[in-house]
UniProtKB/TrEMBL annotation:
Domain (N-acetyltransferase) ranges: 11-160
Protein's UniProt name: Ribosomal protein S18 acetylase RimI
GO MF entries: acyltransferase activity, transferring groups other than amino-acyl groups
Source species of the chain: Halobacterium jilantaiense
UniProt lineage: Archaea, Methanobacteriati, Methanobacteriota, Stenosarchaea group, Halobacteria
InterPro entries (alphabetical): Acyl_CoA_acyltransferase (IPR016181), GNAT_dom (IPR000182)
Domain of life: Archaea
């Protein structure tokens, strides 16, 4: 028996079982975040409303869990029709068992499990290190994934002065420049006096569904109904608030804003937007952003999805990370997709067409 065949025989790849939770969390804590607990696991995998099982493949050796290939399930609208989509995330292999082909074996097992089943496609956002592996397994590239950032403290872009005299000098220059740029942007955010903005602690599912429930024709995006808003923003790793804009007493737009919970830099994201552009009025968006920027002035960095109009975002002090100056510092990710049915144009929409995807951070498993 060859060494490769021997290695394969040492490991099994199988569906996740309820008894695997503790071993999964132990490995996740070693690889990613030791603070992720059963509450987080229940929210993301056990209580996910779109599947009737925990969509995870695991690798074991002698009965011990040494790898996992989880998927984040979402109901996605493609030109008005719902499709189940799965997003790979939290993929992990114990350091002692790497370079044994487990990533590939678990991914191939997932493809076999879900091909011609209910899920229509996989989609995700790998970095430059893992991206080529997906392409070898049948994924196709949609586009480089861009994000808007409003930097409010030099540490958010590695200019906090730690590490070298050059970094200290950069920090001394960058701090005043950032402060001046953000003050200038704040002054430009006048908003619209006819728009009233109300902040909700947490996310009101029925209200946000009322605002954002209409599908975008020809587009691909998450299904924004009450079930989605009630579950998606129950993530215990983030603290959420909703900002709702009203005109003459009628709700016309809303932003869901999430702030990371835990140590390190404080990141606040405009996680969801309703309705999606171009249905979202620019003046309403500017008014909403003005309130968010004021309320989260103490966050180190604010982030927002690239679907928002650049002119409005620049006015609010946000810059895209795929253009200078942020592109000089950013670690770019790539949006990729893989059909599970053999149909790359469901409902006549090309899954690899960048313009068809109407994405916010709601479709990302890490926000």
């Amino acid at each position: 028996m060859s060494s490769e065949a021997t290695q394969k025989s040492e490991y099994t790849v199988e569906p996740f079982e309820a008894t695997d939770v503790e071993a999964f969390l132990d490995l996740h804590g070693r690889i990613f975040d030791p603070d992720h607990d059963r509450e987080w696991f229940a929210w993301k995998y056990a209580d996910n409303p779109y599947v009737d099982h925990r969509p995870i493949l695991v690798a074991k050796r002698d009965g011990d869990l040494v790898g996992a290939r989880p998927f984040f399930a979402l109901d996605v609208v493609v030109d008005g029709k719902r499709h189940l989509a799965l997003q790979p995330g939290d993929t992990m292999v114990h350091p002692d068992h790497r370079r044994k082909g487990l990533f590939t074996r678990m991914t191939e097992a997932a493809i076999e499990r879900y091909t011609d089943g209910e899920p229509s496609f996989f989609f995700n956002f790998p970095n430059g290190q893992s991206g080529p592996g997906y392409l070898k397994l049948g994924w196709r590239t949609v586009a480089e994934a861009a994000t808007y950032y409003r930097i409010q403290h030099p540490s958010a872009v590695g200019l906090d002065g730690s590490g070298s005299a050059l970094a200290s000098l950069a920090s001394s220059v960058a701090g005043p420049l950032l402060d001046g740029y953000n003050r200038f942007s704040n002054a430009r955010l006048r908003g619209d006096s006819s728009v009233a903005v109300t902040r909700h602690r947490g996310v009101p599912p029925s209200l946000m569904a009322e605002i954002g429930g209409e599908p975008a024709p020809g587009g691909i995006h998450v299904a924004r109904d009450e079930q989605f808003y009630a579950w998606r923003f129950d993530n215990p790793e983030w603290e959420y608030a909703a900002y709702v804009a009203e005109v003459r007493g009628d709700p016309v737009a809303g932003l869901v804003v999430g702030t990371s919970v835990g140590p390190g830099d404080t990141t606040t994201k405009v996680t969801d937007v309703a309705p999606l552009p171009p249905a979202l009025d620019d003046r309403v968006l500017e008014t909403l952003l003005g309130r968010v920027v004021a309320d989260y002035a103490d966050s180190d960095v604010l982030a927002a999805p690239a679907i928002l109009p650049e002119s409005t975002m620049r006015a609010a002090g946000f810059l895209r990370d795929d253009r200078p100056p942020l592109s000089l510092q950013a670690n770019q990710t790539t949006h990729v997709v893989r059909s599970l049915t053999g149909d790359w144009t469901p409902e006549g929409v090309d899954l690899t067409d960048e313009d068809s995807w109407r994405l916010t951070f709601s479709e990302h498993d890490t926000s």
